[in-house]
Amino acid sequence: MTVKQYFNQQDARWRNHVLGWGPALGTIGLYGCYDTVCAMIAWACGLHYYPSTFDELATAKKIFTRDPTGTMDFLPDNPLDLMFPGRFKTFT
Description:
Blueprint: H1 28-31, H2 33-44, H3 51-60, E1 65-66, E2 72-74, H4 79-83
Antiparallel strand pairs: 1-2
């Protein structure tokens, strides 16, 4: 049985969690909608990550890419593929 978990990027538990790494960091509350959706997909597949812990794993694995300001806080189109090799496959 798949357990559905719905997350809101404005949840007080992680809205102020910093995305990616410097120099000028955003937060899940401001820019983390994709991070939050990816955490819900992972959760539905049995990988229990909250938006904040999903972000921490993406940061540790250096999955984020550079945004126009130079900050590493944009997720690529296939973060689940990169974070969990062989478990996910993105088709465009």
